[in-house]
What we know:
Elements: H1 18-32, H2 36-59, H3 63-99
Helix pairs in contact: 1-3, 2-3
Amino acid sequence: xxxxxxxxxxxxxxxxxxxxxxxxxxxxxxxxxxxxxxxxxxxxxxxxxxxxxxxxxxxxxxxxxxxxxxxxxxxxxxxxxxxxxxxxxxxxxxxxxxxxxxx
Length: 103
């Protein structure tokens, strides 16, 4: 699985202008919420935030430390969630571009 750091790195986009990318992404993004993989990654993101705060509170019992642990864990989970969304969104982007070949 490849890691995509920005929209421009997606091979499906080709030479599409930025405004077309935004329109297509908004149409395809809503379709990703219907997949079980999205929901597993979403709840995994929440679990990572909880786990980060839980592990930090065992070491350092401060409210700020709990927030930092939750932020670190949530960031890790959010990265995974973002990669899952992009991987599933690519399928919908390909389908959309096939259906709208005039783009």
